[in-house]
Amino acid sequence: MGGRTTRQRRAVTRALAGCQDFVSAQELYALLVAGDHAIGLTTVYRALRELEADGGVDVVRDETGGRLYRLRPADGHRHYLMCRDCGRSRPVDSEVVEKWADRIAAATGFTAVQHTVELTGVCADCLPRTGGGRPSGDGEGGEEQPCHWDRGPGLRDPVRSCAS
């Protein structure tokens, strides 16, 4: 990774590693402050910009156009299907998209081509259920779900909750 690896950047990276789903810079900042890290919101934004430039995070946009971040897996860039209701994300096979982007670049003579593919839907846990409510459990295969969306009482929009 380029740039200096500062104490703050390491803290941002560790906090991202503790979140399974995408989080905003503000959510990440709140998580860090709650964990007694002395860090400013501007520093969190700067660290995220550096991580993005270095290929260390995947970035998607939420429904309002805000940027959400997730630590990029060691095997590289991925595309995700995100639930519009709870925010849960799942990586999807996107080999066809990558090959298509490579073909377009070769055919046009462009280099350093970048692309964005955003897929959203409603996950099975968020579909209305007959007999009341969402299924119990902690996610797929007993995995801990450290980041999830909750609807608070009287809230129209979901609120992100991250535990580390």
Task: Give a concise summary.
The chain is 29% helix and 18% strand. By secondary structure, the protein is of the alpha+beta class.
Give a description of the structure.
- This protein is an alpha+beta fold and 164 residues long.
- It has helices spanning 7-17, 25-34, 41-53, 95-108, and strands at 57-61, 67-71, 79-83, 89-92, 119-121, 147-150, 159-162.
- It has a three-stranded mixed beta sheet, with no helix packed on it. A two-stranded antiparallel ribbon has the order 1-2. A two-stranded antiparallel ribbon has the order 6-7.
- A hairpin with a 5-residue loop joins strand 1 and strand 2.
- The radius of gyration is 18 Å and the shape is globular.
Keyphrases for this structure?
single chain; 164 residues; alpha+beta; two-stranded antiparallel ribbon; 4 helices
Topology:
Elements: H1 7-17, H2 25-34, H3 41-53, E1 57-61, E2 67-71, E3 79-83, E4 89-92, H4 95-108, E5 119-121, E6 147-150, E7 159-162
Parallel strand pairs: 3-5
Antiparallel strand pairs: 1-2, 3-4, 6-7
Helix content bin: 25-40%
Determine the oligomeric state from the structure: single chain
Strand order of the largest sheet: 4-3-5
Poorly predicted parts: 130-164
Count the strands? 7
Shape: globular
Strand content: 15-25%
Alpha plus pi helix count: 4
Mean pLDDT: 77
Structure class = alpha+beta
N-to-C span: 24 Å
Rg from alpha-carbon coordinates: 18 Å
Characterize the main sheet: 3 strands, mixed
Query: How do the helices and strands follow one another from N- to C-terminus?
Result: HHHEEEEHEEE
